[in-house]
Amino acid sequence: MELPKIIGHRGAAAHAPENTLASLRKAAALGVAWVEFDVMLTQDRVPVMHHDYDLTRTTGFAQAVAQTPYHHLSALDAGRWFHGDFEGEAIPTLGQVFLLLAELGLGANLEIKPAPGRERETAEAVVVELKGHWPAQLPPPLISSFREPCLEVAQALAPEIARGHLFEAVPADWQERVSRLDCYSVHAREDLLDGETVAELRNAGYRTLAYTVNDPARAVLLDGWGIDAIITDDIPAIAKALSCG
Ligand code: G3P
Ligand code: MG
Known about the structure:
alpha/beta; TIM Barrel; eight-stranded parallel β-barrel; 10 helices; 9 strands; globular; binds SN-glycerol-3-phosphate; binds magnesium ion
């Protein structure tokens, strides 16, 4: 699988309300080939694209996603908080996301973001959706998670789908953890990475991704260290810095 150098974070989070269909459209319009987004389950187990466990920041409704049935969650406005132009944007289901990715020709890194205690069912729901409905014309997807139980479920149910291990700082025992889960890639917090670590990961045969890089100078540095992909909110700034957009 070929990873692009730049991946839009939560779609194009600097330019549109994160994790909405508008954000995916914006990412495509800004020229990226791939996006990253977060997936979690509603109370009634519908996989939806959302980052926070709680709906307050994105919708003003102070309740957890995991406690909200889909019929209620789908009626919330997840665009207005960002800008009035996006009023009416909803929190989409994973199925709706796949249809739009197909229309836009966008590849994706799906981050499984389970509510605590729902690791296995969240991963199962994502894998079922990917196996049943991932658009065949798109590049194969990349699953990632901070939560190892999610990666374990994905490995057991769909070993053929590439897995990435998300870390904040890459821990001392990274290789053992990543190799046990037969991961394709390691995704680390950009400000906690250094050149030596990137080289160590790459020499061990793993693709390396850094999140969330919004500073052009930092992107150039990471690129020089050999990072495979940069996940960013600000696609044009990073594309300009790396002369690839
Ligand atoms: O997948 C990279 C990045 O999105 C991980 O952190 O909190 O932005 O989902 P977060
Ligand atoms: Mg994420």
